[in-house]
Amino acid sequence: MGGVEDEEPATKRVKLSTEELRGLSNGSSLIEPVSGSSSDLMARPLSSEGDEEVVGSKGVIKRVEFVRIIAKALYSLGYKKSGERLEEESGIPLHSSVVNLFMQQVLDGSWDESVATLKKIGLLDESIVKSASFLILEQKFLELLNAEKVMDALNTLRTEITPLCINVTRVRELSSRVVAPSQFVLVGSHSQDIVRAKSRSKLLEELQKLLPPTVMIPERRLEHLVEQALLLQRDACPFHNSLDKEMSLYTDHQCGRDQIPSQTLQILRDHSDEVWFLQFSHNGKYLASSSNDRSVIIWEVDVNRGVSLKHRLCGHQKSVCSVSWSPDCNELLTCGVEEAVRRWDVSSGECLHIYEKAGVGQVSCGWSPDGKWIFSGVNDKSICVWHLDGRELECWKGQKTLRISDLEITSDGKQIISMYKEDAILLLDREAKVERHIEEDQTITSFTLSRDNRFLLVSLLNQEIHLWNIEGDPKLVAKYIGHKRARFVIRSCFGGLAQAFIASGSEDSQVYIWHRGSGELIETLPGHSGAVNCVSWNPVNPHMLASASDDRTIRIWGLNELNMKRKDAHSNGIHYCNGRT
Amino acid sequence: MDVDPCHYDLVGINENDIHNVVLSYLVHNCFNDTMESFIACTGMKQPDDHLEGMEKRKRIFNFALDGNALKAIELTNQLAHDLLEKNEELYFDLLSIHFGELVRSRKCSEALEFAQAKLAHFGKVPKYVERLEDFMALLAYEEPDKSPTFYLLGLEHRQKIAESLNRAILEHMNLPSYTAMERLIQQTTVVRQCLSQELGK
User: Fold this and answer.
1) B50-59, B106-115, B154-163: lowest mean pLDDT where?
2) What is the pLDDT of residue A562?
3) Average pLDDT score over residue span A145-155
4) Among A65, A193, B33, B93, which lies 20 to 30 A Cα-Cα from A185?
5) Measured between beta carbons, which residues in chain B are less than 8 angstroms from residue A154?
């Protein structure tokens, strides 16, 4: 101990006995403990002290509620002793003693007693008491039936259940149960689902749902709150693009940019002229690209070896402006500009059929969702529907076509989406024959449909990309800007996990990527030396993006390796790899 | 339709036809005594074999109406032995009347046993399920009149069943199950409705 100055007046210093001094040096409290450990002193929550009532920095969590749901969680996890200890230490019981008695009686099957106890629980209004009593007595009835005490069950029904005067339909069902022996059930009646009485703990769960949450804490409440928080974090995460990532409770979830493909992994130089269009197949195994050099190339996508040339399809006499994959990804349609549409077999590279019409040229092509017919846009303002074998099925006239005429069909085959005017899109319901329109105030250059058929991404002349919700009345939901478009058709696409991103080409030779929900531009990827005409995101691998450019190359983009390696150093051990989902 | 409705005044009717209509009505409803005096008054030929049949049918009808369904079933089986086998629905209706009577006289356990023994197997056939449930629902109430299906215990219901039984027996005996009187009234009603609709247009 420090030296005691005798000159100091006695009043300024408390004279401590040696006993207490020793106690001080041990670190224990000066005050006599009342009983047991010192923590007991804090046991009773003092309601007069306002601060004690809430926990957390925002002051919105009530201590009593917080402790109770933690105790509930401990019990459901099976830590009964911990739960009891918490109740004891905090002085906050999970349930009042009446409720505890009630729950025990239900589990023990003391039905009449439990109904009586139910009435003693405060905070309950008449209708809840009746509904809960009904549930309990119904259980009593069913258990009696199961034990083949039919008359007892009937008496319960007549004297206890029916007089509650609620749930008349259920009473009716129960009385049918009395007659039908337990081995067979009345055919076609509702009794089918109550062959056996449910377990008593299940009954307790149902009672919990009926009673107000202050009386009986709902099951798994704490888990539910935590899940809610995690899901909100995930939805707010702008770069969320990876299935692998497990959400941790330790830190707020935030994907880094490293989940977005941003590094050129491959440059494919096999085209000898501008590459105008490209698209991954639905199964992500192939990529098809079409070019001003009049050829189409089918590439094979391999997880380990990357993208490699499979077939070069020659035959078109004009530049090829678009391709379309069959629903089963075994065949490919290609369209030459104002020329013919060709159908190719993917594995052999053979041309299976040529679709042409005398005197006119076709400008776009597509498959029906069932793979049984194809359609093509024609430069005489019509859309032609063909049988696979070349017979013309139908021809819809009167659609306005531009140089490129996009056409989409929803995957249920019900809606056809096509250009209607320069600045309007027609959505036609084939069965109901109902038309809806999307009107823009700028010329539309291209559009694409989301995988879930609910949204349409429309690219406009004025360098904006608009996202429309096409369920019900079309509504504009988002705009994406930043990329450059002046003279050419630049295409955009959906992509990434759950199609949460929008990607587009641009005349400034870069690839642009936006977060779909917020509209925020998150990446601009330089690399190409000419306008980027088209982009396609691998539908199966959210980390792979392909871009087609006037510089005659195709670039395959993937995750940035450097960032990945750095992240791996303090990740939770999950290994990420390029191209792997 | 541009037929003048007053034309009916000009149609001639045969006396015998009218007598037959009345007679068939009396026979159908087993009004033995009335039928005998009617025949005597009009001098018609008595339909000889009808009388015995009528007596039996009358008894069966009354037993069913009173709720003594088991007796009605017994007599029916004597009179027309495979009728109830062929008319399963009718059989079900009769059995459920007996059940209803047991419930009405508060003989709960008897009613339950009877239902389990005789009625439950009908539950396997979808078309009877709802009706069976209607009857079973009566068991749930200490005062069956308070139940939603209380009408099953009433006279009206029994009358309906009794009449169905009567018709079935007549059919079985190769007699018309509907009287001419009924048919005529039904037809007239329809015609009148039709006419008033036409007028209303």
Assistant:
1) B50-59
2) 62
3) 86
4) B93
5) 108, 112, 139
Question: Contacts from A123-126 at CB under 8 Å and sequence distance 24+?
Answer: A123/A212, A123/A214, A123/A215, A124/A211, A124/A212, A124/A215
Count contacts between A and B (CB, < 8 Å). 71
Closest-CA residue of A relative to B125 is A187
Nearest to A334 by CA among A344, A349, A347, A348: A344
ipTM of the complex: 0.76
Query: Per-residue confidence at A184, pLDDT binned at 50, 70, 90?
Result: very low
Query: Do B109 and A151 make contact, defined as CB atoms within 8 angstroms?
Result: yes
* Distance in Å, alpha carbon of B151 to nearest chain A alpha carbon: 15
Contact A172 B132 (CB under 8 A): no
User: Least CA distance to B142: which residue of chain A?
Assistant: A158
Instruction: For residue B118, give the DSSP letter.
Output: I
Q: State mean pLDDT over B97-110.
A: 89
Residues A98-132: pLDDT tens digits? 888 898 888 888 899 998 988 888 777 888 889 99
The sign of the torsion formed by the CA atoms of A559, A565, A568, A573 equals positive
Residue A563: per-residue pLDDT: 55
Check CB contact under 8 Å for A184 and B124: yes
Give the per-residue pLDDT at A550. 93
Judged by a CB distance cut-off of 8 A, whether residue A30 touches chain B is: no
3-class secondary structure, A198: coil
Q: Out of A159, A161, A187, name the one closest to residue B129 (CB).
A: A187
Q: Chain A 131-150, CB below 8 Å of chain B: which residues?
A: 150
In degrees and rounded to multiples of 5, residue A504 shows phi and psi of -150, 155
**Quick check: A183 contacting B, CB < 8 Å?**
no
d(CA B168, CA A47): 82
> Going edge to edge, which strands form the sheet with A492-495?
A492-495, A501-504, A511-515, A521-525
The rounded distance, in Å, linking the Cα atoms of A491 and B160 is 76
